[in-house]
Structure formats: structure tokens, C-alpha cells
Amino acid sequence: MKEAEDRFKNGHQNLNEFVGMEPSKKRKRRTSFTPQALEILNTHFERNTHPSGAEITTLAHQLGYEREVIRIWFCNKRQALKNTVRMMSKGSSPM
């Protein structure tokens, strides 16, 4: 507590500085995929839901997106599929 009081007296009035945390980094803008890129990604996903690192890198170069963006797209697509399957199975089971 003494350290916090000293920091406050020295002009560190920002709460993040007060507790010793770094301010949060700005989020990256949401990526917009072209319809052509989505077609290629969806086709690839139908064949393989878990592409290797090399496949992700190849797709990223082919489509002109960062590797991490493509990796996250596959993660999100798998999660969406999982959620869809869960919702469909929940809807068909009697309660």
C-alpha cells in the first residue's frame, strides 16, 4: 500500500500505472475476406479441418493474408462447426 501511495504522490494517477500493469494493447482491425478467398478457405476446410502449418502458410501466401489470420480463420471455423453440431443435437433430443 505504501508503494501505491508513493506512486500516487509522484503523479502516477492512472489506475494501470497504479497497480503496475501495462496498458492494454490496441486490437487489430477485423479482417475482411474476399468472396474468392472464402470460397478457397471453405473448400480447403471441407477436405481438411486441421491443416498443417505448411498448408496454412501456403494458403496465406496464395490468398495474400497473414499466416496468423488464416490460422485463426480455421480455429473459428472449427468452433462454429462444433457449436452448430451441439445446437443441432440439443434441438433433436427430447427434454
Automatic annotation (TrEMBL):
Protein name as it appears in the record: Homeobox domain-containing protein
Domain Homeobox: 24-84
Keyword Membrane: no
InterPro entries: HD, POU_domain_TF
Region (Disordered): 1-31
PANTHER family the record matches: POU DOMAIN (PTHR11636), POU DOMAIN MOTIF 3, ISOFORM F (PTHR11636:SF5)
DNA-binding region(s), residue ranges: 26-85
Source organism: Allacma fusca
One Pfam family cited in the UniProt record for this chain: Homeodomain
CDD domains to which the protein is assigned, alphabetical: homeodomain
Main location: nucleus
UniProt similarity note: Belongs to the POU transcription factor family. Class-6 subfamily.
A cellular component term, taken from the record's GO annotations: nucleus
GO MF annotations in UniProt: DNA-binding transcription factor activity, RNA polymerase II-specific; RNA polymerase II cis-regulatory region sequence-specific DNA binding
Annotated compartments: Nucleus
Keywords: DNA-binding, Homeobox, Nucleus, Transcription, Transcription regulation
Keyword Transcription regulation: yes
